[in-house]
């Protein structure tokens, strides 16, 4: 069965203070209409003046959590993308503050799959984090250790993937 095309024609805001990351994302999402921003102010202005379907937000360097708040108020699909804020606490914070997914830059090459997962889950009324966990549980174990969820077991056990 052919894969569903969820991304063609979607308007995506790409926000990162590293221009090479923006160029890579633009290449990976060539089926989308992309707009790039390298600072909080530039991204904020774009969010307030243009219409997007998806926002991919770096956490560090562009105040990604403040941008997340703005993007969520616009009802955008939001994905946090990070290398320096790659922590268990930032995964949890991204979830709690309403992000639809959290992608380590090491996994950026799979951004299309992460976005497909989010869009499909939303269409089906499912949690966007269930597929996130199936894709990244082993990554998290390698990065943070097998007990990466033990610091806040109550929180993680309430997650939709448990």
Could you give a quick summary of the protein structure above?
Helix content is 46%, strand content 15%. By secondary structure, the protein is of the alpha/beta class.
Can you offer a commentary on this structure?
With 162 residues, the protein is α/β, with parallel strands linked by helices. The protein has a single domain, classed as Rossmann fold (3-Layer(aba) Sandwich), CATH 3.40.50. The chain has 7 helices and 5 strands, in the order E-H-E-H-E-H-E-H-E-H-H-H. Helix 3 (64-73) links the parallel strand 3 and strand 4. Helix 2 runs parallel beside helix 3 (64-73) and helix 5 runs antiparallel to helix 6. The two termini are 29 Å apart.
Sketch the topology as an H/E string, one letter per element: EHEHEHEHEHHH
Contiguous uncertain segments of 5+ residues: none
CATH architecture: 3-Layer(aba) Sandwich
**Apparent shape:** globular
Q: Tell me the major beta sheet.
A: 5 strands, parallel
Radius of gyration over C-alpha positions, nearest whole angstrom: 15 Å
What number of domains? 1
Task: Please tally the helical runs, counting DSSP H or I stretches of 4 or more residues.
Answer: 7
Q: What fraction, in percent, of the residue positions are helical?
A: 40-55%
Biggest sheet, strands in spatial order?
A: 2-1-3-4-5
Chain-averaged pLDDT: 90
């Amino acid at each position: 069965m052919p894969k569903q095309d969820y991304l063609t024609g979607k308007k995506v805001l790409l926000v990162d203070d590293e221009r090479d990351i923006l160029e890579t994302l633009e290449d990976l999402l060539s089926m989308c209409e992309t707009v790039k921003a390298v600072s909080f102010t530039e991204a904020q202005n774009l969010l307030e003046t243009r219409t997007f379907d998806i926002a991919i937000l770096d956490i560090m360097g562009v105040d990604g959590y403040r941008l997340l708040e703005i993007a969520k108020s616009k009802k955008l699909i939001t994905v946090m993308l990070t290398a320096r804020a790659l922590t268990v606490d930032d995964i949890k914070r991204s979830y709690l503050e309403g992000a639809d997914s959290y992608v380590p830059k090491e996994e950026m090459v799979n951004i299309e799959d992460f976005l497909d997962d989010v869009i499909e889950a939303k269409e089906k009324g499912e949690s966007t984090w269930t597929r996130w966990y199936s894709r990244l549980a082993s990554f998290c174990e390698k990065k943070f250790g097998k007990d990466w969820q033990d610091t806040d077991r109550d929180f993680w056990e309430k997650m939709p993937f448990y």
